[in-house]
Amino acid sequence: MSEEGSASEGAAAEAAGALVGTVIAERYRIDQLLGVGGMGAVYRAEHVLMQKPVAVKVLHREMTVLDEVVKRFEREAIAAGRIDHPNVTVATDFGKLADGAFYLVLEYVPGQSLTRAILREKPFSEERALFIARQIAAALGAAHAAGIVHRDLKPDNVMLIERAGTPDFVKVLDFGIAKIQSTSGASSNLTRVGSVFGTPAYMAPEQAAGKPVDHRADLYALGLVLYEMLAGRPAFEAEELVALLTKQLIEPPPPLPETISPETRDLVMRLLEKDPAARYQSTDELIAAIDQRLGPLSFQPDSSLLSVSGVRGAPPSESAVARAGTVRLSPPSGSPVSALVAKARTALSPGEALEVAGVRVENRWLALGAAGLLLVGVVFGIAHRGPRGIATSPSAEPAPPELTDVIRKAEGGNREAIAELMRRPERARTSAEWVAIGRGRSALGEQAAALDAFDRALALDGTLAKDLALVHAVRLAADDDKTQKRALELAANRLGENGADLLFDVWTSTQERTEGTRLAKSLLDKEEVKSHASRPLRIALDLRRATKCEDAKRLVLEAKEAGDERSVRPLSQLSARSGCGFLGLADCYPCLRGADDSLGDARKAVQDRKAPKL
Known about the structure:
This protein is an alpha+beta fold. The strands form five sheets. The chain has a six-stranded antiparallel beta sheet. Strands 7-9-10 form a three-stranded antiparallel beta sheet.
């Protein structure tokens, strides 16, 4: 990069940083600069009256003189405001600052990008990749129904968050170059025929050729994203732009690994057909194909599902069900829902109905797929599990039966229900009520209040430290600078083995030394915290601290037997044959260089054992 370019970027970053600490539009306090790009900057902010975290995009002032850039920014505001779906970031405000710069206020999404998740955890399991792809497809379907084609779908524009106990909940971002159909039916398209906009590695052939595109270009991009999740690498790679675009135009993608089922490989390859007419023709068609792969218990959850229809406690409309995300249901054996599942797997004649917990469930609800089963599970308070069998509330002290519905609503972030639970005398509140308050506060982005509630719940019932949904919520709070310290201390003091895992996850989440990583490491170094750690985590920690060759040799054997992927890095470091003695030229661990390859065997063993995902 030229010195001039570096200076320009530095000036842009400096100008963007000047907004931190100020209040814009008389209501958004800018708290942190999240990133700076060529068009503008993104901040974490807080609505000063509502005390709600938001993300604010501000267009660089010098960009406001470029008509196409301004229109593109307006386009993102229109798209984000028009699409109403849980898997799409919500736009809440748009305007112009006193200096002429435009701003856009979006839902704040604290999580990790799909790009980062792939880098850290590639390749994904088949089920996980399809689970994420289905949610992306649902988000695109809502956009397409609103007359919007994204045109720049890629892992960078997909965020994975934890929501209401569901890990890998998807949020699709950045409709900045979307193609929007106006309400009059005319197409709003800033690009001329023959010009190319988008990201080449995720661009449909017709888009790469500068031809007109429709919603099927988004399906091709989703196929590329799904391919990358499954293979751990992009379908098409090249150093030169022209070579990359040529591959998109004429080359078939390399075959997916044989470990992927033939049905899923066929699904991906159909998405990646060069001819749009040969692909799936709609997101509904794709979702139906994915549901066949995920099985009959693939369904759509949203904490507000029962209130969407406007009738509390009533089954939602089909449109309401279609708006939700995706998780998996594993009803307890012998429960009413498990009986319903078994019956639903058989064909029901028109008009036939089932009775569950005294309520008649007609065939028309079963036609909605297992979303109807979710209704039964939620309405009657039957515990359900997340996408990898994570119990959402395994052991909370039962609340009074009359509070069942209030607790369910509170868990989903219903403020009235949370307030109703908070009005009850503190001494009378059960751990289940405190958990519901904590989950609800977390869903609303009120992390400090959520941590206080979780602390009270854990004080009443220590076994809740095994509730992974609660642990996920604490991990989410650990990503927020305002609640990071409180979350890490709660993990250290209350969450036992899961707390130690959480501290390690925060410590190793970035190579930068931050206040959060330093605190997580210092807490993890405490003997009382380490004593709660699982054996695989203790091995990973001890390997990092080993200074004597014999200690390292013993730990290598332990890692081979019981270590997990958290030991990969320290084992790799033990492979170094220098670093000790005069000028650091001597081998620090000569005892590891025997005839057998224990170190290599240990590294291979731990790579196949996944660490807990928080």
